[in-house]
Design goal:
By secondary structure, this protein is of the alpha/beta class. Helix content is 49%, strand content 15%.
């Protein structure tokens, strides 16, 4: 019997759903017997609130871009159908599960009962020293993450699937995978598509954004809350 798993990632407006933060993007990659099948689930959602600067700096999803996207309760059924009862492979699983279950509760649905496989926990046990962020693990395993200019749930889920295969024993278990060039090309194409879509609906220029980020860093760089949010993001990145 084949074993189905789902590599999953989310993007959000902040760090805690209990503080009113919401999911804005979900990306899922289907694995069968540890091999990506090519089936994915990807959606942006309207959080019905503003996008904090700190979160925008991470994923680049603006309030204006998300305004036309569906609400979580409009996509919940499709999301639940895709993941089914399959185990969920997540980097820092507690974070994503807290948000997914909060969104489901707010929609008067049952929380997810799926088994979770936390790749951050696996990596910390396997590599107790040094960074175990997704970027760091991609570098450790020579996985091409050059298309990852900002966080994106689907791109990150695709990279996570490859990292997971390495963490559980290496690519010898995945001889049926597409070769590295094809995977890299696919991620690059997805990244270009997402950047183009975001740019078409973003109301400020890159130059204006850089100037704003410089201002924010100068004003908030020594703020302890700013630093705390930065440290928390390192384990997700």
């Amino acid at each position: 019997m084949s074993e189905r798993q789902i590599a999953l990632d989310t993007e959000t407006t902040g760090f805690k759903p209990e503080e009113g933060h919401r999911i804005v993007e979900i990306g899922c990659v289907e694995l069968e017997n540890f091999i990506p099948t090519g089936e994915v689930y990807h959606v942006y959602t309207n959080p019905q609130r503003d996008m904090p600067t700190e979160a925008f700096n991470v994923h680049g999803l603006s309030t204006e871009f998300l305004a036309s996207k569906p609400l979580f309760n409009e996509i919940a059924g499709d999301f639940l159908e895709f993941v089914g009862t399959s185990p969920l492979v997540i980097h820092n699983a507690a974070f994503d599960m807290a948000f997914l279950n909060a969104e489901l509760r707010w929609d008067n649905r049952e929380e997810l009962q799926n088994k979770t496989i936390d790749t951050l926990s696996i990596a910390r046990k396997k590599f107790p020293s040094g960074s175990n962020s997704l970027d760091a693990l991609c570098r450790r395993f020579n996985i091409d993450a050059s298309s990852r200019h900002k966080h994106g749930a689907l791109i990150d889920a695709e990279l996570l699937a490859e990292v997971y295969l390495e963490l559980i024993g290496g690519r010898q278990q995945s001889l049926g995978l597409l070769d590295e060039k094809k995977r890299s090309a696919k991620r690059a194409e997805q990244a270009v598509k997402q950047r183009r879509e975001r740019r078409n609906l973003t109301l400020i220029t890159d130059e204006e954004r850089r100037a704003h980020l410089d201002f924010v860093e100068k004003k908030l760089g020594d703020n302890p809350i700013w630093k705390q949010m930065g440290r928390a993001e390192l384990d997700r990145s």
